[in-house]
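Researcher: Structure for this, please.
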Amino acid sequence: MRFSRGVITIAIIVIVLAVGISVGVYHLLKRATPLAVPEAYCNARTPNGLISLQPEQAQISATIAAVAARRKLPERAVVIAYATAIQESKLRNLEYGDRDSVGVFQQRESQGWGTKEQLMDPVYATNKFFAALVKVKNYRKIPLAEAAQAVQRSAGGYAYAPHEADAKILAAAFTGRVPQAVHCWYPASKTPAPRPKTAEARKHLSRALGSTAITTRKRGWLIAAWSVAHAEKYALSRVRYSGATWSNDIKVEGWKPGEASGATQVELS
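Model: Predicted structure, token format:
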């Protein structure tokens, strides 16, 4: 079957247009923002490794570090608390557990730890844990599992030890010993962004930490880490400290050099 020169020309034009449209659509889709919005997440990164956390876990971690700082406890106490909380609740504030166990450390009302309402308060629960830990003889030097078990009196005290490595990463990050170690991101609302609740955030922080005055650089980074961990809760989009800035930007991973900011205040916005 023979085709006229005009039909062949039209066919060639159609093919070229189809290819051109396909290539154009491909590049548009490649550049387009994904329709599926990722869920909020947090990371704690130190030279010893990276741990991914959900916002609640990051907030619990930040609270434990703040309470420890208020009580002037060593980092070893924070490591023990983290390993215990990872085993007991996966760093979550659980409303349920074995028998009447609840909260981050799965403490029991029937064992004299406090009321259920009190134990569901991470600040209260952490204070109770540390109050018991400091009574353990040589808790800084004995194996972590022994120290944790002396507080918890769990049926499986051996289970705390495997979490020590992760607990050390979290402690280095949230105590502020490793600067710029905590990064979080949360999806911004399609509606006009709410105003940051900076006053409420500082009030919440002071309940765990006491004075929010920055007396050392390490304390400043503890406050900065706490603020980033609570960014979604208090609608914070930027945290600045000591010449570095965290932004709630999915394209930016971690802290970046920012506008000059002093080492005597953590700026929230």
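Researcher: Any notable elements?
Model: Strands lie at 41-46, 49-53, 101-102, 107-108, 182-185, 238-241, 244-247, 256-257, 267-268. The chain has nine helices and nine strands.
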